[in-house]
Design a protein that fits this description.
Number of strands of chain B: 3
Largest interface: A-B, 58 and 53 residues
CATH topology of the largest domain in chain A: Arc Repressor Mutant, subunit A
Radius of gyration of chain B: 31 Å
Helix content of chain A: 40-55%
Radius of gyration of chain A: 20 Å
CATH architecture of the largest domain in chain A: Orthogonal Bundle
Shape of chain A: elongated
Strand content of chain B: under 5%
Largest sheet of chain A: 3 strands, antiparallel
Distance between the termini of chain A: 44 Å
Strand order of the largest sheet of chain B: 1-3-2
Order of helices and strands of chain B: HHHHHHHHEHEE
CATH class of the largest domain in chain A: Mainly Alpha
Oligomer: heterodimer
Order of helices and strands of chain A: HHHEEHHEHHEEH
CATH superfamily of the largest domain in chain A: Winged helix-like DNA-binding domain superfamily/Winged helix DNA-binding domain
Largest sheet of chain B: 3 strands, antiparallel
Strand content of chain A: 5-15%
Number of domains of chain B: 2
Number of domains of chain A: 2
Structural class of chain B: mainly alpha
């Protein structure tokens, strides 16, 4: 039995990100062997020109289509979920950096009522209620979920860019990290 | 005198996420120093914007109007002469607003990053959610469990109490124990055994539906509050409830 092929099967069946220890346990090998075989698989898919790839996402590894094959997939299945609004992204960003955070704290930063946008984010599983702050009114604390990482295609929150602390906004280039658009 | 032509003011309310977004827009447009905002001009432009929105939705506009009032208050305070001599105690009336604007602005760059990530990520696809996730659920990590396991445990308990077989009619008894009291009782039992107690032993005999339900609710509430922890070594094993050290 070929280990990298076994791992390919595991990733196919799982349908959600698997961590190295999960893969190793299922394959009955050490973590280091699983890691090496995973890299083997990634290379093999790459070199054989497969439409699939193994990506590092939401703290694990998952089998995914390559972006080049977006079009035929879109013709096969209709995409139902719409993109997030700017208000939702703004709120999600504040939660991602400041979690756990309460609704009044979010509203203090945004300067606008944020109840409905929080509900949208929660309905889409991107944030969750993680308890209550032990202050007056016991407001709900929100944090981002694993689905948040998955939705944005990142593996952990450390990938978020550092907060923009450049003091003056009048400089035209206030979002320097976005050249790649 | 406005710094920019009023024709540029034809924007819709929906173009902005809120008063802070609008203010940052004005500061950018006018290319002024955020630490030295020409408050009179910016306030005027801000008010012009509000006036240009023909139909103000009051639920949204309220926030803009509060900011307008704040701006006018700052403007009026700046017209007052600075108190003499006590230089170090003088605080710029704009300071708090500047702080809020800077805090708001800190997140703006990351919004674009998230938008870009969302776009890139939406171009790749995964296998859909499994049709029968129950059949395929991934094994849980050592000692982890899901709410389903607790529910199964509750069902087992209700079954062994013979509940469900009895007729629907019953005598409604006066409730003697409140949830709060039950929570205290459960917590006491759990704390008495730092190594944890077996789920079933939390329920006192004789088993009654009301008792079981109340105890289960108390347990859920304690779990939610993070006062106790539930662990299960394997899917069919015992559920151990152990106390969580107070932080």
């Amino acid at each position: 039995m070929k280990l990298s092929a076994a791992i390919e099967c595991l990733l196919f069946v799982a349908g959600e990100p698997l961590t190295i220890p999960e893969i190793a346990r299922a394959a009955g090998v050490e973590d280091s062997a699983a890691q090496a075989a995973l890299q083997d698989l990634q290379r093999r898919l790459e070199e054989s020109g497969s439409g699939l790839q193994v990506i590092d996402i939401a703290g694990g590894y998952q089998l995914a289509s390559r972006p080049e094959y977006e079009e035929p997939i879109a013709r096969l299945i209709a995409r139902s979920a719409s993109k997030l609004s700017r208000a939702a992204l703004e709120t999600a960003a504040i939660i991602a950096y400041r979690q756990p955070i309460t609704q009044p704290e979010i509203e203090a930063v945004r300067g606008v009522a944020s109840g409905s946008v929080l509900k949208t984010l929660q309905d889409r599983g991107l944030i969750e209620d993680v308890g209550r702050r032990q202050t007056v009114g016991r407001p709900i604390l929100y944090s981002t979920t694993r689905d948040f990482l998955h939705y944005f295609g990142i593996t952990d929150l450390g990938e978020l860019p550092p907060l923009d602390d450049s003091p003056v906004d009048s400089a035209p280039d206030s979002s320097g990290m976005l050249e790649s658009t | 005198m406005p710094l920019i032509a009023s024709s540029a003011l034809r924007f819709k309310l929906s173009a902005f996420e809120g008063p802070l977004d609008l203010l940052l827009h004005l500061i950018r447009e006018n290319r002024v120093d955020i630490y030295d905002i020409p408050i009179a001009e910016i306030t005027q432009q801000y008010l012009d914007y509000l006036a240009s929105w023909e139909s103000l939705d009051l639920t949204i506009a309220g926030e803009y109007i509060v900011m307008a009032a704040t701006l006018l208050e700052i403007k009026s305070r700046m017209l007052l002469p600075k108190p003499p001599a006590v230089e170090e105690e003088y605080e710029d009336p704009r300071a708090e607003l500047v702080e809020r604007l800077l805090e708001y602005q800190r997140y703006q760059g990351s919004i674009e990053t998230l938008r870009l990530w969302e776009e890139e990520r939406s171009r790749i696809h995964f296998r859909g959610t499994l049709e029968n996730p129950e059949d395929y659920a991934l094994p849980l990590g050592e000692g982890e469990m899901t709410a389903d396991h607790l529910l199964h445990a509750l069902k087992r308990l209700l079954e062994s109490a013979g509940i469900g077989e009895e007729p629907v009619t019953a005598v409604v008894q006066r409730r003697r124990v409140s949830l709060r009291m039950k929570m205290a009782e459960v917590l006491r039992k759990v704390r008495a055994n730092p190594a944890g107690v077996v789920f079933e032993t939390l329920f006192s005999e004789p088993w009654q539906r009301y008792e079981i339900v109340l105890t289960f609710l108390a347990l859920l509430e304690l779990l939610r509050m993070g006062r106790v922890r539930a662990q299960q070594k394997n899917p069919k094993g015992e559920i151990i409830i152990s106390p969580v050290e107070a932080a």
